[in-house]
Amino acid sequence: MDSNSEGEAAAPLLEHKPTVMYFEGCPGCAIDREKAESRGIPYLRFFHIWIINLVVCLPISSIFPFVYFMIRDLRIASRVEDIGFYAGFVGASLMLGRALTSTFWGMIADRIGRKPVIMFGILTTLVFNTLFGLSMNYWMALATRFLLGSLNGLLGCLRAYAVEVCQPEHHAIALSLISTSWAIGLILGPSIGGYLAQPTEKYPNLFPSNSTFGRFPYFLPCLCITVFCFVILLSCVWLQETLHTHKLEKREDRATKTVNCRFSDSEEIIEQHITLNANKSLFKNLPLMSSIILFCIAAFDDMAYMEIFPLWAESDTSYGGLGLLSEDVGQVFAITGGSILLYQTFIYPHIVKILGPVTTSRIVAVSSMVLLFTYPWMTHLSGYCLSIVLNIASAIKANLAVTIITCSLILQNNSVSQDQRATANGLATTLMSFSKAVAPIGGGIVFSWVQKRQQAFFFSGDQMLFFLMDINMFLALIWTFKPFLALPEQSSSS
């Protein structure tokens, strides 16, 4: 065949260029059309997503500075060494509730829309976070935290929403919003909890001992978060839905079909071939499941550290701790959160672009193991020297943890098609929440155990504590290699 005949044969292929359709009255199509008309970064939507996710983070991080003292005041622990044990269950109850219901809320979001699930999640946060601050006994604290987690399906839904409101080239930025929002949560949450808990002791002129805040010493930080939740709930009136509401008839025996539809801005009837999802089970998607496992390992490490660090820092030096106050720990978390915000915004994107998510995760795992080895030696420091070293170490550790988490999120979302992304994020949230539910319990139990073995010959006290955390990071390092981690086709190991 000559060149002319080849050109004639190639010409019809250009005529079958895919045509984009928008169904009139469909909110998902409206969002897609806006994205097609404006391919820039949707800063306003990203900010709204970021601040909504902050609602999820604040109730989790705000209790870190005062949970030790709250358990002490609730008088559930018979000995000082047992405080960490009971504190672990308070931290785990929220994650356990979220683990049990995240997939369910993802299914609801796929059926009725993202916006109702997001708004309901904010409402439940408002109610049960307030009740937690009013807890009169240990069991009320456990119940309110569990309900706060189980009735809040916001996190997985919001991850899917973040990807759906932007172009594919902006997906990495959208997913990193979750990490940067958590960074701000680490600034505001512990600061709110550290400075506003027990206000009658810290600010007796403003809060008399016979006031409501004297009876409920941990209500004020929860109340501040409740007010914030109320404001964000009102702002969701302007939140745009992304779920497609038009219905297409599907036939299981065909992978593609031709449908007739009407453009929202035209009366012309056209035909378009639409590829239907094969509905392959997500559990058979090895790149997805292996990246979720890496995500769970990193989340376990992050949550265990968040549980153990304040307990260790606030415990007495005779038990291998640092003897810090709740406001000191709150200040450390605030500085740590600020460092995460700067790192995720200006440094992390360049590192991942050069090294790739897998190699970055490997380097981070090794670095985290080395860093954790230095923590027990901080007990020999004091004053400004201790403050400087502790803040630097905490900032580095948090940035290393959030790096692996964000890298695993990128791998997850590269492992599924767009129509499976919400379900995949719900599944990841469920498994991650189980991991984070186990972490505080395990961390609390281990912390109580190591406090009783301060004079042990082999890895005494806090040395054993951080050695066990090193083992978890070693597991994360091993998981980044084959055959444990399977990569999607569009990813590389570099």
UniProtKB/TrEMBL annotation:
The chain crosses the membrane at residues 47-71, 83-105, 117-136, 142-161, 173-196, 216-239, 292-312, 332-351, 363-382, 388-411, 431-451, 463-481. InterPro entries: MFS, MFS_dom, MFS_trans_sf. It is a multi-pass membrane protein. The keyword Coiled coil does not apply. Residues 45-488 form the Major facilitator superfamily (MFS) profile domain. It comes from the Eukaryota. PROSITE patterns: MFS. It is found in: Membrane. Keywords: Membrane, Transmembrane, Transmembrane helix, Transport. GO terms for cellular component: membrane. This is Major facilitator superfamily (MFS) profile domain-containing protein.
